[in-house]
Write a structure and sequence with these properties.
Strand order of the largest sheet: 7-8-9-3-10-11
Number of helices: 9
Number of strands: 21
Number of domains: 2
Strand content: 35-45%
Structural class: alpha+beta
CATH topology of the largest domain: Rossmann fold
Radius of gyration: 25 Å
CATH class of the largest domain: Alpha Beta
Distance between the termini: 33 Å
Shape: elongated
Amino acid sequence: MRELHARVTVEIGALQLAAQLSVAAGELVAVLGPNGSGKSTLLRCIAGLLPIDDGLVVVDGLPLDDPHDGTFVPPEQRPIGMVFQDYLLFPNMTALENVAFGLRATGVPRHEARRTALTWLERVGLADHAEHRPGQLSGGQAQRVALARALARRPRVVLLDEPLAALDVSVRGDMRRDLRRHLDSFDGMTVLVTHDPVDAYALADRVVILEAGAITQEGPLTEITTHPRSPYVAELVGLNLVAGILRDHMLTTDTGGAVVTARAIGDGPAFVAVRPQAVALHRHRPEGSARNVWRMVVGDIDVQHDRVRVRLDGQVPLVAEITPAAVTELAVRPGETIWASVKATEVATYGR
């Protein structure tokens, strides 16, 4: 079967990684997660740079790592190409020599390796930089050399570890488009590790969320952004997330908070998600039609251009997004008491 299948269990210091990942041929899967969640460790295990304690790594039906029967294929013999966050180009080699290095490591004769390397430099638009060393290349050029080196070996799997993180923000958009274009012709499996949801939106067919060594959510980006299942994902996509037990259109939290919903999905464990823009703030208890009204304490206030995000502490912690004018009018200050309201029709409800 043409796919990557990795079931990885490994313990490194305080990190206990236990994750399962499958990627089909022609598919690009983005792995998102906070720092220290195990994203890069997962890639290193798939690449063979870190042996797993338990589990299995299989590419196109060929076992590469299986501790139970002693199988372990060294990294240089795996049909896998990897692009590291800092690219790891050899500083004393030219761009051409860097791309040819991976081929030479697999036994390809020098002349053939250099010819193939030059072909790949032409594909990524760097043929005229073939004799330049890494110190003479820009960040974007170095990234393209690293990608050419990974693809020149004709791997079945390409692993990308934060490939855009080292680039200036001003050039990331162009590099995302270039990366997508170069990978469109790749018929193998691609895994992209990133902390930026924009990378996932621009490049990925499917998204996997990794937190504290475990996969907490996976699926199309649209599903994850509209139905987050952890505080990390909710914060990532800018939503308020509240978990509790739903009964008769009311979700009750462990702390005794309550959220009234308009949509009926059946009783039981559930999430509700609320857009920060849907949270209205009031100096006094409102008398309007909103069915959700809470007395809150103002926490942090974060000014973001023409909007202000206000963290509210209470039985249903929320973040509200209002205008600077509203902050002045309401005299919103950290530590003060304020009222918040949300219409039931603004509450998205889904099962846990």
